[in-house]
Amino acid sequence: MTPLPVRLHLGSYAPTAGLDLSGVAVTGDTMFLAPDEGSALLRLRREPGGSLGWEEPEEVALTEAVALKGGPEDEVDAEGLDVVDGCLWVAGSHSAKRKRVKPGTALDEIGPRIAEVSPEKSRRVLARLPLRDGADGPRTVPAGQEVAGLGEAARLPAGKRGLWGALADDEHLGPFLGIPGKDNGFDVEGLAVREANAGGGVVLGLRGPVLRGWAVLLEVAVHADGAALVLDGVTKHFVDLEGLGVRDLARDGDDLLVLAGPTMVLDGPARVVRLRGAASAALPPAITAGEVEVVTEVAVGRGCDRPEGLAVLPEGLLVLHDTPAPHRLDGDHLVGDLWPAAM
Q1: CA 98, CA 119: separation in Å to the nearest integer?
Q2: CATH of 22-313 among 2.60.40, 2.60.120, 3.30.750, 2.120.10
Q3: What does the DSSP 8-state code read for residue 332?
Q4: Which residue in 340, 341, 334, 342 sits closest to 33, CA to CA?
Q5: pTM here?
Q6: Is residue 258 within 8 Å of 275, Cβ to Cβ?
Q7: Are 259 and 307 in contact (CB under 8 A)?
Q8: Fewer Cβ in 10 A, N or C end of the chain?
């Protein structure tokens, strides 16, 4: 089945200006996007009249919406987004970064350049942002400001009392914490919040590491205490995605959808798979390949068009791409793919 085009009016944030997108969440007629760099999200509204198009965005500065260490220039690398029970959840990649080799780099400089690895502590973000409903849909509020029934914005600590500290001595993931994400190191790329009757945990999908072909889902139990999220526990779940990692997560009724793709810098394969009941029932310790239902294979380009964002719309499944191919760029618009709900 051929996907339908979805046009996102990104204005000055369009990929032609060098911006890539890494995460998406939709609630009603409001869409939140996570750019691949910086410390801000984008908020879009659906064009009127039931259109598949989305209007020009406004910026949501995370440093204004939740207490973050550092400034606007520090990269959060937001990757996972979900909206549930009136709150927007945001996860940074938590990954270390290896220096990029730019085109034209002298051959004798490549080795020293890729030897440089930085821990990127600003990426260690897991935050819950309450949304206030307005005439034009839900919006975040300034840090410290409460929304009735939801409280104020809260985030998990980035150090020993957070996810990093909980995994430091983990037998599976601890050795990968300091390895850059694109080297099969620790890299959060998807987020979905499960129903309260299923434990209410925040599920994080890892692009890496992939361990002997098995991808990892982390269920993170937290509770809010003022402006802090308090970590109550972390549970690992292994999924046989046939060597692929998690590039995004989305809830679809009782099911959890996984956008699966390579952990390394490769052009594919990529596919959307369904984990039946995984959004409403307890997750098992492991899910075998036979229990993973392929929804659709997703085409990728050569050096471009890498599927990176997944969201459920009333019309079907929306897939957005990192490093979009030229046919996805139309001035200040980005074109995504919508797989009809009949799938």
Answers
A1: 9
A2: 2.120.10
A3: T
A4: 334
A5: 0.94
A6: yes
A7: yes
A8: N
